[in-house]
Specification:
451 residues; alpha+beta; 13 helices; 9% strand
Length: 451
């Protein structure tokens, strides 16, 4: 009983496999066999990589090189079919018809690849029967063209069509050979040769598909890495802005709580208003801290190195930053132009971080170079420029993520400013940013050089 059950299960399994193979064969070769699938021209990037010396005008024509090659091959097939047609009106007419069918199949692969296979198979069968009646003119081009068409179809579609077309083709060849009673001696070697050619074409197609998938995966990975870095930078900015806004909200809450005690006989309505102000300030502060907690939860160690209670740096802390990079070996000069004035804390913090990142990049990527920091207080905004010279020695591989410029740009755009980051003509690098700032009143200082 067990052996019978196992035998039945094996038969059902084999039946499912056969049914699946027949279903795939039907889907690949019969369903929408003549569907319009045009071959696109070559990409400009490939043309530039393959033939960079080609003039721009000729590159536009080079994009259509596969189409021109197939068209030239079809022309050669047609001429070869007509040349072997011999003489005689009926034979010449049949030769012309068969030659047109055989030559049209390669051209059709550019638009309807599976349909081109069926047309080529039909042309080869018609040419074979015609050769039995007249002369072997069609046999010269019919079957070789069929093999070429099958190769083109495999390269244009999918690798498994190589096996399916091989089975159908030599199934038809075997049936026709048996019907006409011809010798089967030449069929096996031809079948082996065609199978080897189609396997090679399928391997090339599979390699191209695998390479395309690898490129797509690498592009997606790079985009995901850039997106993750951007989100991390935004999380850091959110934390810093939280500290800036939290300071002001705390001051509002404290002043609103103390205000009623500074006025004798405070009216109840005024005391209620101050209490409402304080409650709103405390609620806003709690909401800010809650949002910051959500941001931090994805990476709880993101800010472990810094003291969460420490005040955020401003441009007044620039001297200590310069001293630290000088101690690391970077020769840097700082110049402040214009009249320094109080700026919003978010602007001061972003400007400080931009200078910090620019000097860090100079240390990592331009060892031995000199750097210059320029802070410009101008009407309507703040200008920041960090420029370094060419490195005097080979830079060591940097362990960073390589997205420092992305973070700086994100800070500037968040404040409505503009930024450029590009190499200089002497081999160095320059970062220039402008952050718009509304006019603020306050005590001004005298600008000058910071050494």
């Amino acid at each position: 009983m067990n052996e019978t059950t196992q035998s039945q299960d094996a038969l059902r399994s084999e039946a499912r496999i056969a049914h699946g193979a027949l279903h795939r064969l039907r889907q690949d070769l019969f369903v929408d066999a003549f569907a319009f699938r045009p071959l696109p021209p070559l990409e400009d990037a490939k043309i530039s990589r393959w033939v960079p010396w080609l003039p721009e005008r000729l590159r536009r024509w080079a994009r259509w090189l596969p189409h021109l090659t197939v068209g030239f091959f079809s022309l050669l097939v047609f001429l070869a079919g007509m040349a072997d047609s011999g003489t005689g009106s009926l034979q010449g007419l049949l030769a012309a018809g068969v030659a047109v069918l055989v030559a049209a199949a390669p051209l059709l692969t550019l638009f309807r690849p599976v349909g081109a296979y069926w047309l080529s198979l039909f042309a080869a069968v018609v040419g074979g029967f015609t050769a039995l009646v007249f002369s072997p003119f069609a046999s010269v081009t019919g079957f070789p063209t069929l093999l070429a068409v099958m190769v083109l179809v495999v390269l244009r579609t999918r690798p498994r069509l190589a096996v399916e077309m091989w089975l159908v083709t030599f199934g038809v060849v075997g049936i026709i050979t048996a019907v006409v009673g011809a010798d089967m001696g030449d069929v096996p070697p031809v079948a082996v040769f065609c199978g080897a050619v189609l396997i090679a074409a399928a391997a090339v197609r599979a390699w191209r598909e695998e390479r395309r998938q690898v490129v797509e995966t690498q592009s997606a990975t790079q985009e995901e890495r850039t997106r993750r870095t951007l989100l991390e930078e935004r999380a850091l900015i959110a934390r810093e802005l939280h500290d800036v806004v939290a300071h002001h909200m705390s001051v509002i809450a404290i002043q609103a709580e103390a205000a009623p005690y500074r006025v004798k006989d405070t009216p109840p309505e005024l005391a209620t208003s101050f209490a409402t102000i304080r409650e709103n300030a405390v609620a806003a502060l709690a909401e800010l801290r809650r949002i910051l907690g959500v941001v931090r939860s994805a990476d709880p160690d993101a800010f472990a190195e810094s003291d969460p209670e420490a005040p955020q740096p401003t441009l007044n802390s620039l001297d200590s930053l310069l001293d630290s990079v000088r101690s690391a070996g970077l020769v840097v000069e700082a110049v402040v132009t214009g009249s320094p004035r109080p700026l919003p804390q978010g602007v001061e913090l972003s400007a400080y971080r931009i200078v910090q990142e620019g000097l860090s990049n100079a240390l990592r990527h331009s060892p031995g170079a000199e750097a210059r920091v320029e802070i410009s207080y101008v009407l309507g905004g703040l200008g920041v420029r960090i420029v370094n010279g060419a490195p005097s020695r080979l830079a060591k591989p940097s362990p960073g993520a390589g997205h420092g410029v992305l973070g700086m740009r994100e800070r500037v755009q968040m404040l409505g400013g503009e930024m450029t980051a590009e190499p200089t003509e002497d081999g160095g690098f320059e970062v220039a940013a402008f952050i718009p700032v509304a006019n603020t009143a306050g005590q001004t200082k005298t600008g000058g050089n910071r050494s």
